[in-house]
Amino acid sequence: MQPFITLRSAAVPFARANIDTDQIIPARFLSRPRAIDHGQFLFHDLRQAPDGEQRPDFPLNRLHWRDARIALGGRNFACGSSRESAVWAMYDHGFRAVIAPSYGDIFANNSVKNGMLAVVLPRDAVDALMAEAEATPGAEIDIDLPAQTVTSAAGTWSFDIDPYAKKSLLEGLDELAFTLTHESDIAAFEHRMGRDNR
Amino acid sequence: MSELAPRTLFEKIWDSHRVLDREDGQTLLYVDRHLVHDGSAPAFELLRQRGIKPRAPERVFATPDHYVPTDTRERDAITDDRHRGMVDALERNTAETGIRMFGLKDANQGIVHVVGPEAGLSLPGMLIVCGDSHTSTHGALGALAFGIGSTEVAHVLGSQTLWQRRPKTLRITIDGTLGTGVTAKDVILAIIAAIGAAGATGHVIEYAGSAIRGLSMEGRLTLCNMSIEAGGRAGMVAPDETTYAYLKGRPFAPAGHDWDRELERWKRLPSDPGAVFDREVTLDGDAIAPMVTWGNSPEDALPITASLPDPAAEPDPERRAAILDAFEYMGLTPGAPLESVMVNRVFIGSCTNGRIEDLRAAAEVARGRRVAQGVVAWVVPGSAPVRRQAVEEGLDRIFTEAGFEFREAGCSMCLGTNGEIATPGERVASTSNRNFRGRQGPGARTHLLSPAMAAAAAVTGHLTDVRALMAEG
Ligand code: SF4
Predict the structure, then answer these.
(1) Rounded to a whole number, what is the distance in Å from the CA of B402 to chain A's nearest CA?
(2) pLDDT, tens digit (0-9, with 9 covering 90-100), for B424-471
(3) Do B159 and A186 touch (CB under 8 A)?
(4) Contact A81/B133 with Cβ under 8 angstroms?
(5) Do A126 and A138 contact (CB within 8 A), yes or no?
(6) Ligand 1-lining residues (CB < 6 angstroms)
(7) pLDDT above 70 covers what percent of chain A?
(8) If DSSP codes are grouped into helix, strand and coil, which group holds residue B366?
């Protein structure tokens, strides 16, 4: 996993509340192996019409936002299914951070596991960032994870983050390898459990 | 911590699964039961790349559900290479790692969240995970059960543990008596309509109150299933006599002396009097009517007697825009009565409503009636055992005589990953759990409702208050 420390990038707004993971990646693409570029499936059915024609007004199709690495989401962003491919699609498209008032819990977990930062900011802050992005498409935002701040021309906001998620992101932590350093604790737990069950 | 401090059901299960606590607030939890399905290939691949083997394969059970066809049990009949590949991968991965799988022709096959409880694999007090958001279903047995992503599935396979930060607790109390034609599906839709699709984000829900106690095990499974649609991390119901009666004699449930010992433990699980929840919500069970959704979020639910909202009357601009968007996608007219909405297809099944009681309720409405002209109606049992039971009770005949298709077990049209989808613009009355855009196929329009309400829509050709049909007899 690539560490995440700081990021400066344009931010692309996805303004609606309750954008679900079926929108982020439709179910028919879930049988693709991880090694395949999932960026091509990102918002597939919103981004293009059924005949395959790109919808020019969809944010990802707008020139200033094509290379954006920060996504701005509405309330309850990425709610719905546990499909990790929702994160893979965003990551492969180039996104390294999302900023939203709230997330589907499983998406937020999956995001950290893949090195993509999911920042929670109050709704008015996200609204201000979205308004700025609409007013000046391509305007850049700075995210500083060690300092836990988001800065744009519209202002600076601090955000909270779980210390463990922060550490994982900063170090690009391999969680399974880390957990297995606690193997003796797991074995001791299993031993206790076996004894209690006799 | 004092043993005497009153604890919630959730806290008791959390405490008994702590392997270690870190100072930064993370806890390593031990997983009792891990369920995998045919979407789990990426997790096995991750593990393989690392050269790590499952730590406790005897705690893991597998069944294919998302990619299996429901018109046949023949694997070779799966024409899509990718779909067949997912089913094959599960078979290969479980065989290589010594994990028990209930394959396509196994007597226990089915949707993973129907299979776990029904086989007696999901038990009170357990910590259960699965790479699927509707794992919350299993909480109905008094377990702590939640969905995880692929990386976490690999982590659990490799270590039998998971890092978690302790979630908050929310108790939803519903007292009263549910009216005729009102089911657990209506209760959960009413809850989501009341608290919103993110109403329980970051919380584990415990459902309590006399209306919940009065639900059958099947009803509780439906209720907990859709906790995720309320944003909840998990949903649970304290175990009681209903739970024990349901579990006794199940193939993998403890038996004999083990049963007695476990039962003693289970009886200590319910939340202690005076246990404190971070939040409390109360709803009146008597006031709940049969519900149906009209939009693209499960929170867009109304009693069937209502009319569609009028966007012009909505003060919040964000909400107004969302309603207009939904109406456009769903092809609906503001202010029209819900009962005037015509349907093209009916889907009765899924991990929400694919159990025997659901099929019985639908059959009760279908009996002696005919599916309306031009409507295609499917009944897809949630598992092979449910299907067998339905056949034994003659429900299959009631359905087929009424013009429904009675199919084999699987997820089918809930998500359509096996290719069973509606065509663009088709309107589906569905007993599944998500009405998202494109969920049942690109352009498909989903209305969520209970099995009896779905059967009512099938025979009338439009969304219908099932209570009117029940009164006809
Ligand atoms: S029935 Fe639907 S919600 Fe349930 S596991 Fe299958 S696809 Fe997921």
Answers:
(1) 32
(2) 999 999 999 999 999 999 999 999 999 999 999 999 999 999 999 999
(3) yes
(4) yes
(5) no
(6) B 65-66, 111, 113, 132, 134, 350-351, 411, 414-415, 432-433
(7) 98
(8) helix
Would the pLDDT of B4 be above 80?
no
**pLDDT (tens digit per residue) in A29-79:** 999 999 999 999 999 999 999 888 999 999 999 989 999 999 999 999 999
Sequence-separated (6 or more) residues with CB below 8 Å from residue B281: B170, B171, B172, B173, B191, B194, B195
- Report the DSSP beta bridge partners of residue B258: none
Our CA-based measurement puts residue A109 at a distance from the nearest CA of chain B, in whole angstroms, of 8
pTM beyond cutoff 0.90 = yes
Q: Which of B418, B412, B367, B365 is nearest to B387 (CA)?
A: B412
What does the DSSP 8-state code read for residue B371?
Answer: P
Q: Which residue of A has its CA nearest to B154?
A: A176
Q: Distances from the Cα of A182 to the Cαs of A175, A179, B19, B33, in angstroms?
A: 11, 5, 9, 20
B34: which strand partners? B60, B129
Cα of A193 to ligand 1 centre, how many Å?
32
Residues 16-55 of A with CB under 8 A from B: 16-18, 20, 22-23, 26-28, 30-34, 45, 50
CB-based contact A18 B299, cutoff 8 Å: yes
Paired strand residues for B345: B376, B428
Quick one: pLDDT at residue A197?
64
Q: What was the ipTM of the complex prediction?
A: 0.95
Whether the CA torsion B322, B327, B333, B339 is positive or negative: it is negative
- The CA distances from residue B221 to B118, B234, B259, in Å, are 11, 12, 22
Residues 56-75 of chain A whose Cβ lies under 8 A from any Cβ of chain B: 74-75
Q: Which of B116-120, B232-236, B317-321 bottoms out in mean pLDDT, i.e. has the lowest?
A: B317-321
Residues of B in contact with A83 (CB under 8 A): 149
Report the pLDDT value the prediction gives residue B151, as an integer from 0 to 100: 96
What stretch of H or E contains A99? strand A97-100
Say what the pLDDT of residue B3 is.
Answer: 60
- Give which of B164, B466, B46, B324 is closest to A179, Cα–Cα: B164
* Spatial distance between the Cα atoms of B306 and B278, rounded to a whole number of angstroms: 33
Give the Cβ contact number of residue A33 at 10 Å.
12
Q: What is the Rg, in whole angstroms, of the alpha carbon atoms belonging to chain B? A: 22
Q: Label each residue of B374-405 as H, E or C.
A: CCEEEECCCEHHHHHHHHHCCHHHHHHHHCCE
> Which of B16, B19, B155, B165 to substitute to test the interface with A, most A CBs within 10 Å?
B19
Within 10 angstroms of residue B114's Cβ, the number of other Cβ atoms is 30
CA B237 vs. chain centroid, Å, equals 14
